[in-house]
Amino acid sequence: MKITNPAFNYDLNGGKYSGQRQTDPRIEAYIHQALGDAGTVLNVGAGAGSYEPVDRYVIAVEPSVVMRSQRTNNLKNPAVIGSADKLPFDNDSFDASMAIVTVHHWPDIEKGLRELRRVTRFQIVIMTFDPDSLDKFWNAEYFPEVIEVEKQRYPKMDFLINSLGGKVTIESIPVPLDCKDGFQEAFYGRPEAFLDKEVRKAQSAWGFISDEEQDKIVKRLEVELRSGEWDKKYGHFRTLPYFTCSLRLVIAYH
Prior knowledge:
By secondary structure, the protein is of the alpha/beta class. The chain has a single domain, classed as Vaccinia Virus protein VP39 (Rossmann fold, 3-Layer(aba) Sandwich). The chain is 34% helix and 15% strand. The strands form two sheets. A six-stranded mixed beta sheet has the order 2-1-3-4-8-5, with helices on both faces. A two-stranded antiparallel sheet has the order 6-7. It starts with 9 loop residues before the first helix and ends with a strand.
């Protein structure tokens, strides 16, 4: 499957997103540490407001009206209507900027990253997934079509390093077993979650796959869960406290 537009239609499919994709405090700690002592923070592709620090002055930018409307449910301030490739701010307007699990939706990632650099005085904090590590998760066996979609959308780490410039550090983030943020790896030890359509609807890659094809894909997992085959192969994941796979925190400094 060839992806021509990486953006997920949140206005059409994101109505219950914030119910599934919530801030996990253990992952949040890594993000907030990366923000350092920044007093003003720009959050681009802010969605419903997950991971926004409450102890800083935060301006959020979000193009989707459905996602902006969910911010009030999370007790977040309203977001500015806008997109990453054309930020409505002057140069060096913010101490730090953040883009949390969003860059793979941007039609022009490089332009968006240049815009982040333009409006940011100090560090840029990006949470994303490394496409070269996606095959390390067991879902690659059951959902190869989903992995194919994700590999086309997530930028490679070298691309991010080169586009951001300056000093860039990349940290692999461990995902806890009871992770509150419902991205795919969050359910590494709770495979039954993928049988729930609402869970899948909050994972944008599934939005590129038809309902009919999804049923076929999920059936592979369902059959092996019922037979016990999944547990024979991967049952140890059910009690693994943390799983470090493809989740990355990219921090760029001037």
